[in-house]
Every structure is written in C-alpha cells, then in structure tokens.
Amino acid sequence: MTLLLGSTVVGLLAGVMLVVLGMAPLTAIGSGAAAFVGTFTLGLSAISYVKKQS
Asked: Mean pLDDT, to the nearest integer, of 30-49?
C-alpha cells in the first residue's frame, strides 16, 4: 500500500511540476504517468530483491 501511495505522489508531483515549468498539460500527464510507472517498478524490484535475500 505504501509503495502505491508513494508512486502516486511522485507521479502527481512530476506532472504538476512540469506544468508549472511550462510544459503542455497533456505531455505533463504522460510524463507524470511515466514517473509513476518507473517509481512503482523500481519499488517492486527492490522489494523482490530484498525478499530473495531473506
């Protein structure tokens, strides 16, 4: 649950910051979605790596 929430926050912040910096809204939404997917994927990879070590 925390991973999903953290990834959502990162994606939203990325999208909002890109709009503030002057990027087109549709492009910023796509970039925010990419940030969400990247953060979520890295988090899942880290969790699976740690569980394999146990």
From this structure: 95
User: 41 burial class (0-12, 13-18, 19+ CB within 10 angstroms)?
Assistant: exposed
What is the SS3 string spanning 33-49? HHHHHHHHHHHHHHHHH
Residue 13: strand, helix, or coil: helix
Q: What's the pTM value of the predicted model, to 2 decimals? A: 0.85
Length of the chain, in residues: 54
Beta carbons of 11 and 33 less than 8 angstroms apart? yes
Tokens of 29: 């939404």
CA angle, 48 then 7 then 34, to 5°: 100
